[in-house]
């Protein structure tokens, strides 16, 4: 019998992608979908792409409505999950796609988010290799509280962690610039997210170290072995529906060869089902990850600039959010890690 | 009486934009348009947007067809302008939009382009301030051989030169990542430039220091005062018709404040008609530069990462190519520098 | 001395395009820009593409603020211009880009718009040829109250009026389907106008004869000579910043040849500066009209289906709105009709 | 044990989508992939989105290489499948995504395609209801030669056939205008398919009844009961990766009500798994069908214009090509019709 599932925040983009993945998952059955303002509406009115779930109606996002399910996925605005989760039984698997339970450092939380600090949960990036060789996936087995990573964080962590763990680059002068789709910003009605503003245009935001994903990246790279992490992080909105293409660079440690670098990534990802290292001289494009749980990674060593350049591509809503949540839930429940997920993108 | 003008390479994107600007210029009259394969066709068949020039027919790109004009603009593939220019009179103003005459260093030419080296011409980036305070515009007055800069080069040079000249950043650890429109790659029929491949996708190319614009950036920043320039440069193709959004970062020199940085840029650009420094906390978008000769620049100091972040936006075909060529021609001929050019973008 | 100009509704897309055109116009000087909610803000904050007008500040949209100018352009929501215009002097040229003064039929107004009916003004589509051969431009000379046409209306009227006037098609079974850019819907914060919703998607709206532009099209085609007009009209939102591509079809009258049809359009547009008939077998694309006041028209006779197919392309904000307003103002004031306007599009 | 499958023409867009669907299909196993020029290359080099098939290498498209499979899908240029199929055993299920076996009328073939006529196969549009009530799906059971429909044809047939079969509209004055993605035109290197040409632009092609899909539409609507079919058909290229939005209109028969129309469509599609009729007043968008085998249909009755307007949306590569092929193969083989297919789109 499939696990019964509730999705809170089912009217947004992350919620919609969760539902798309769950609808195709052999072991899950979506019973309940919740929303704030849109409660009472048929799900199909908000997620017209989800024809197979047209029978569902959005109910209000309350703890009561989330009780009685084996698994609860939260796709709520930051700051909303703490109070709700407190009322869910310990044995319910709760996967939070929001930021509330990602950061271990209360000071970082206070500086970048503010409001009550609810503490960190098990972190839903199975491919993160700790400095001691532990894979993060091992910490998710049997877990009942999981925080899915931020989408930009995933793109950058997967790009840089292997090099840092292997000691082939310095961690104190990292630079990441990301081409990102506006769906990462959700359905909020903000002028700069209008189609007329975004189509045909590229623009940076959160420039200068103020983006909320910075402390989460630092946290991950410390897990991978960095004593100290300094990163210049700039996301650039570009006109595409989905996708993150992160260009991350780091200063090479002296004497490191291109072969050393590649070996570090092969060690990290050779057996990963969802992280694929591209051959020498090839670099990914986001289109190839659309709808897939795949992260694609290309490497270049720039001897003149003395820098490693890593280009990583993910679908911000899939591997960047909902896919990571489902993958982590699979692990937590003892299901095959790849259940209900694909590595094949919808391209062109 | 207007200057008579010929445009060689009139069937491509750079040629088309040159013609659009020249058609609106009060002091120029386009008499001749040339092409290689498309010779014999009406211009309007290749540039259907140029209704006011529908009377022109493309003739073959030969020195003979370019003789007898006051001004010749070359928008040819790299390596094609040397032989042609050799046969044009010294008094003809020749502005080359290709790379043939940009680099002063024959070794750099050989490494990144190859083929015969034709030597550098006066460099068509009027706003470049030399380490001794000379503005590049002063070197263009009366010139008859001008090399217009590469589009990515313009975006990065304008972003970084003031900081380097003022000594507020180091020049040995620069990182630039650019969101670029595919029109910069021209009309060549290459699979990765197909609409189905590019729409909805972002992808990096020329990764790892191999892009031809690297030595030109280094050359410019040395002019601005850098003893040595090391730059990691990665262009990312994004689905928009025009535009470059460059995110450039540099390590701050010790003790430098945000005010010091801003002062350096104000000194450089306060009186520039085409380079506009945005207020604190604002960053440009490429849409605002479409069709305009404008470069927009936003600054942020990231104290945590100890880096200056400069975001610059240009239209790759306008200020990035054809606009710079016209602006430089204006200066060379003693016309108002802004003649036939606008600072207002076509947005949305 | 240039005419002094005020633009009411300067923070929207139509207002922005008006200002872009006016800034480049040799005979106009923008003195005043007004807005509702955005009053008090610098214009550049709302129209960051208009660098040459960065000195202007938005003031409130009131009759008092619009007094004392030679020309007032109104780019206001429907229903807002009547009360304001009533307080402006008769000798002020007022050009309304809204719908308030387009319809002559109060019943049609009541059905499609509702609210107070303010009566029709001189209609700003200079190229409309009346059944008696009068050109609409002649009715604009010396006028002081002009209503600029709806954008979709312009695309369809220019496509169908010549055939109707010449009697080569029936007017009772017209079908027009338009690919339209979302900028026509303005900056309103509506969910379906978000970039994530629109990019990569096409969708119809106003289906089934309910769109407000239907009665205006009918009115124009009656002016061109139709006794009765029946039109099926469907706009389709597509992911581009600007542009309308209208495909309009009409049943051919018996015995009409392709040559008869072409002759009708040549008679109508041979001398028009802004309407260009493409050669046999060629059809326009919207990119070629971006930023231009051009309408491009292609014709095909489908003998199997017994229908004329007319494909017309305009920039919805230029010839579709602001360009038509400036063109009409030029005529009204006795300026060259093409002053400040271009036929050359910004492409690619 | 899964059926062994070969895909011929695996390097194109239709081939890629076939492979994406087949890779997720529980009953098929892709053993062989073929190509013409790209033979010898790894599949992943041509279809970088298909990570799960990275072990496959393209072999040459020859009959020999296609022998020995249970199912062969052909995604070849028009005119290429006849000779190949002639050499495949009768018991092999062959599904042709090309046009070679769609038309029953040799005259129509000669006029619109030319070259040798190979005769029609069973037509792979299971939802087509014949005038006598037969559903096309019933004719596919046990079949071994199936022609998948043209993508535009599917969008229009599904939109118009129910009304024609029910006799609520006339079939002699149909008009369809489609917003179509360029992926329908394949990977051919043609100038007008370059991203710089297509992004930000809409353009019509095949105008005036010359498009090859016209006779196939006529054929289908005759099957649905039309004595004679006259249709004006215009496809409009718009800047999106996938999707067709067809706006189809037909003159209502006298006395027909909106309820009559809706009843006709409900009768046709109430039990269809992949064709969904939207509620009154709702119209589809292509984004909701991306990657899905869904066709979404919205209806409006325009009493003023006396026309039915049907808006239909499909993914041109999925339900429009590869999805229809897999769906038909499912039926032919006695598998569940929905096996390996989804109704949920990848949106945003």
Automatic annotation (TrEMBL), chains A, B, C, D:
Active site: 151
SUPFAM superfamilies: Glyceraldehyde-3-phosphate dehydrogenase-like, C-terminal domain, NAD(P)-binding Rossmann-fold domains
Superkingdom field: Bacteria
Gene Ontology cellular-component terms listed: cytoplasm
Catalytic function, reaction form: N-acetyl-L-glutamate 5-semialdehyde + phosphate + NADP(+) = N-acetyl-L-glutamyl 5-phosphate + NADPH + H(+)
Enzyme Commission numbers on file: 1.2.1.38
Subcellular location(s) per record: Cytoplasm
Coiled-coil stretches noted in the UniProt entry, renumbered to this chain: none
Keyword match Amino-acid biosynthesis: yes
Record Pfam families: Semialdhyde_dh (PF01118), Semialdhyde_dhC_1 (PF22698)
Biological process according to GO: L-arginine biosynthetic process
The keyword ATP-binding appears for this protein: no
InterPro entries: AGPR (IPR050085), AGPR_AS (IPR023013), AGPR_dimerisation_dom (IPR058924), AGPR_type-1 (IPR000706), NAD(P)-bd_dom_sf (IPR036291), Semialdehyde_DH_NAD-bd (IPR000534)
Keywords: Amino-acid biosynthesis, Arginine biosynthesis, Cytoplasm, NADP, Oxidoreductase
Function: Catalyzes the NADPH-dependent reduction of N-acetyl-5-glutamyl phosphate to yield N-acetyl-L-glutamate 5-semialdehyde.
Family listed: Belongs to the NAGSA dehydrogenase family. Type 1 subfamily.
Name of the protein: N-acetyl-gamma-glutamyl-phosphate reductase
Organism, scientific name: Frigoribacterium faeni
Organism ancestry: Bacteria, Bacillati, Actinomycetota, Actinomycetes, Micrococcales
Gene: argC
